[in-house]
Design a protein that fits this description.
The protein folds into four domains: 78 residues, no CATH class; 50 residues, no CATH class; 158 residues; 137 residues. It is built from 26 helices and no strands.
Length: 493
């Protein structure tokens, strides 16, 4: 895959237009096809250019366009993302030079103004440099009050260390989660979180930036996913989001963290089965996505749209959910790999609505290997795909194929499930086998008793939402009721 395909989702519409102008101004010949190729990439039709000019010429053109695009993005990043930081650094250096030549009045004026800018962008390390310089020359009559400066320095150093401590906890948790995802290593993330909070001295009462709040939300999400218990996830930091709204740290520099923080909180509320609350935070996320000329709108739109649709599906508005996902697919803006989550969500919705052929058609489009999906979409996504595949083929009557799929599934992921405390996967698959080999027994007292004795379910509010969706399929067979109705009853009763 071309690096151009990776970069295009990051570009806003304004960035795309500016890059086209940038190419046009640099082109010295009229027959250069780089603008044509870039526009073809935007429409997903780059193969047409390749067919027209041949593979060799295309590869050269693609390489040059890729280099130009990366150089353009680097320049844009320096101009917008780091512009304020560069300005602060220059002003600090200027103030120090003025101090060296004893131009104290002007030096203090420059540094005091620079302090305001560094506070605005919440750049703790640069603020430390500013306070260090101000303290060094605080003996001068024009300097700030020393006690005030010392308190500023202490408060800023504390905030800087809290941010770095949280970053260390985040790094440890992410590494542990990666081990669980890819190597099936058993790790108690809840205990690990508590241990590292204590080890690095991270307190819940500390002030945070949107970046560190996002890291907290991600850690909370990881802990909930691993324990399959989002009910116990502590969202103690949610009130801080409104406190920071419109403050010094609510800037373009932290916008992507602001957006991702709101998404993570929305996702946690979704997994807590608080769908209306989840939609509230999605609306806030959408507002942030529109800021700064929609800078990150395209990059985060798929995640936003998918969670928006899922929430509506579980509040009983499956038609809204399906229409939202279909409109996303009809945009023809994103690659198939970028649409893995919404496509599987659409398969699930079709399955719940009894549109078996449509669900099977959607599932059949996932043609890559299990290992590829584990790496690129995540083990949870791949497991959900395989659960739906098994249930779909039962509905289609492909019993021999189902036996083969379940046996393969258990061989590949058996150790993974055994390493997870209180996993319901293997007992549930045994019940599924028992059902499809003896479907007439599903509503008998004996089968119901077997179900109740096979799985040690948590209280409804603690049970994992996605697992409940799969169990709802078996429950619908036991009750003789439609799957979607059973699912909503099970989740919302």
């Amino acid at each position: 895959m071309s690096s151009i395909t990776d970069v295009i989702p990051i570009l806003s519409p304004a960035d795309q237009r500016e890059f086209v102008r940038h190419l046009s101004l640099r082109n010295k010949r009229h027959d250069t096809r780089n603008v044509d190729l870039f526009r073809a990439f935007l429409k997903g039709k780059e193969q047409l250019i390749k067919d027209e000019i041949g593979s060799n010429a295309y590869n050269v053109l693609n390489k040059r366009l890729s280099d130009r695009l990366l150089d353009f993005m680097a320049t844009k990043t320096l101009e917008s993302e780091v512009g304020s930081e560069v300005t602060v650094i220059k002003q600090i250096l200027l103030a120090r030079k003025l101090f060296a030549f004893r131009k104290y009045k002007l030096a203090f004026k420059v540094l005091n103004k620079t302090e305001e800018e560094a506070v605005r962008i919440a750049h703790y390390s640069l603020l430390n440099e500013i306070y260090h310089t101000l303290i060094e020359f605080s003996h001068h009559s024009l300097g700030q009050d020393q006690e005030t400066l010392f308190k500023k320095m202490e408060a800023n150093t504390h905030a800087f260390l809290e941010q770095e401590k949280l970053n260390m906890v985040y790094a440890v948790l992410r590494k542990a989660f990666k081990a669980i995802e890819y190597d099936s290593e058993p790790v108690d993330l809840g205990l690990l979180l508590e241990k590292n909070y204590a080890k690095y001295g991270v307190s819940k009462q500390s002030g945070y930036s949107f970046q560190s709040l996002y890291q907290l939300a991600l850690i909370a999400d990881i802990a909930g996913a691993h324990a399959r218990d989002y009910h116990s996830v502590d969202l103690f930091f949610v009130d801080k989001i409104d406190e920071m709204q419109g403050g010094p740290g609510d800037s373009e520099k932290f916008l992507i963290y602001h957006i991702d923080l709101l998404y993570s909180v929305s996702n946690i509320y979704f997994r807590k089965k608080k769908f209306r609350k989840s939609l509230e935070f999605l609306e806030k996320m959408h507002e942030q996505m529109l800021r700064y000329d929609g800078k990150f709108f395209k990059e985060r739109f798929v995640k936003y749209k998918t969670l928006f649709a899922l929430n509506h599906n579980f509040i009983g508005e499956s038609d809204v959910a399906s229409n939202e996902l279909n409109s996303l697919f009809e945009m023809n803006t994103y690659s198939s790999d970028a649409l893995l989550a919404p496509k599987l969500a659409k398969v699930m919705i079709d399955f719940q609505q009894g549109r078996i052929d449509e669900a099977y058609s959607g599932l059949a489009k996932f043609q890559r290997s299990d290992s590829w999906y584990d790496r690129h979409a995540g083990t949870d996504w791949n497991l959900n795909r395989k659960y739906i595949e098994i249930l779909l083929h039962i509905e289609l009557g492909n019993i021999d194929y189902v036996d083969s799929r379940i046996n393969s599934f258990v061989r590949k992921y058996g150790d993974f499930f055994k390493a997870q405390k209180d996993s319901h996967a293997l007992p549930f698959l045994k019940l599924v086998k028992k059902y499809y080999h003896n479907p007439n027994d599903v509503q008998t007292p004996e089968f119901i008793e077997t179900v109740e004795g096979s799985i040690n379910w948590k209280p409804k509010e603690q049970e994992d939402l996605i697992l409940m969706c799969f169990y709802a399929w078996l429950k619908s067979k036991m009750l003789g009721k439609p799957l979607y109705e059973t699912t909503l009853d099970l989740i919302n009763s």
